């Protein structure tokens, strides 16, 4: 059907990406992109590369909810994490084997999604929404399920909230700074600021000065301008995840006293006897897994800043140099340990001079 501007849409109608009037029932009708893709997939030829982006665009366009004045689009990136993550927690809370199965499955799922989405839709918000969903879900479980066990002191809850607040502040500030300073576009006719490394980001579609890497979990580029905030956010995240997991485990498991008021979990064999205990235990395990991942990223950032390398430059090093922590590699931008750290800690907005060739 062609566009009809003079007639209002019902709650199940919408204008698709081709500006044609359609209905939600048409979602079940497969188009050429679906037909060719699934035919190749069934015959063992794999999903055609040239059809992947069109396939995702069609799925995104058809994923809608009935709404007054016309059906509204629902972002896939916003739907999948919000549905998948709570489901995993609920399933994992049933027994130990379900916990192992759920976390193993989600690991494979994330690896596949990362490989697929980065190629098909590099600007995907999936990983950022997954991060936000994880934060919200863990905090809700802690505040509304773990706290009512009356095993956690008020001061401990305040300390954890401060750690989470510090993480959120660093995350917000580094994203603001990234949006502010990563809009610099390199011009082939201009002379770029000397001493500055400029890298093109295929995800942000821009040229980023002193880029380290693009963080899909934060949905922004990490460069010298916000690298200190990125490292601080990892410190707060690691502390909050480790502290919350210990508080939860000592609340749902039988704890033992390590030193004076320091408690550690001892016997967790009874955590699956009640759903509240099970889901609290699962959230603590998930927090510990995230804490290990965050710690690895933190140690990597500390190493790279100390030796004056970006992650992109690190990835290009031979395996032998990586085993020696990059000591033997050539580092043209290395200014020494102290200057490398002062460069990101004492960073101020640079005045990038652009001088035309004559």
From TrEMBL:
A Gene Ontology cellular-component term: membrane
Catalytic activity entry: L-cysteinyl-[protein] + hexadecanoyl-CoA = S-hexadecanoyl-L-cysteinyl-[protein] + CoA
Statement: the UniProt record of this protein carries the keyword Nucleotide-binding: no
Any coiled-coil regions, as ranges: none
Pfam families: DHHC (PF01529)
Similarity section: Belongs to the DHHC palmitoyltransferase family.
Name of the protein described by the UniProt record: Palmitoyltransferase
Annotated organism of origin: Henosepilachna vigintioctopunctata
Lineage: Eukaryota, Metazoa, Ecdysozoa, Arthropoda, Hexapoda
């Amino acid at each position: 059907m062609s566009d009809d501007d003079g007639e209002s849409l019902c709650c199940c109608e919408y204008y698709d990406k081709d500006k044609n009037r359609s209905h939600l029932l048409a979602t079940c009708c497969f188009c050429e992109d679906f037909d060719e893709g699934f035919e190749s997939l069934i015959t063992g030829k794999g999903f055609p590369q040239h059809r992947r982006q069109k396939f995702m665009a069609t799925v995104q366009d058809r994923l809608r909810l009935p709404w007054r004045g016309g059906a509204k689009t629902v972002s896939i990136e916003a739907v999948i994490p919000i549905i998948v993550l709570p489901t995993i927690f609920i399933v994992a809370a049933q027994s130990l084997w379900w916990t192992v199965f759920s976390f193993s499955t989600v690991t494979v799922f994330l690896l596949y999604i990362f490989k697929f989405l980065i190629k098909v839709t590099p600007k995907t918000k999936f990983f950022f929404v997954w991060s936000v969903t994880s934060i919200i879900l863990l905090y809700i479980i802690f505040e509304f399920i773990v706290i009512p066990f009356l095993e956690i002191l008020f001061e401990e809850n305040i300390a954890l909230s401060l750690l989470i607040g510090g993480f959120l502040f660093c995350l917000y500030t580094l994203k603001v700074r990234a949006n502010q300073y990563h809009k610099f576009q390199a011009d082939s006719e201009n002379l770029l600021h000397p001493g500055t490394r400029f890298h093109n980001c295929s995800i942000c579609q821009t040229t980023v000065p002193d880029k380290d890497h693009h963080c899909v979990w934060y949905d922004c580029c990490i460069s010298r301008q916000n690298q200190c905030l990125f490292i601080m956010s990892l410190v707060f995240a690691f502390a909050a995840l480790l502290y919350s997991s210990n508080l939860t485990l000592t609340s749902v498991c039988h704890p033992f006293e390590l030193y004076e008021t320091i408690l550690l979990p001892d016997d967790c064999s009874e955590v699956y006897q009640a759903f509240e205990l099970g889901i609290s235990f699962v959230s603590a395990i998930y927090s510990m897994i995230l804490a290990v991942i965050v710690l690895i990223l933190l140690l990597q950032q500390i190493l790279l800043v100390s030796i004056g390398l970006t992650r992109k430059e690190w990835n290009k090093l031979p395996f032998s140099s990586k085993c020696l922590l990059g000591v033997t590699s050539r580092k043209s931008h290395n200014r020494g340990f102290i200057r490398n750290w002062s460069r990101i800690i004492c960073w101020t907005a640079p005045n990038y001079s652009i001088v035309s060739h004559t």
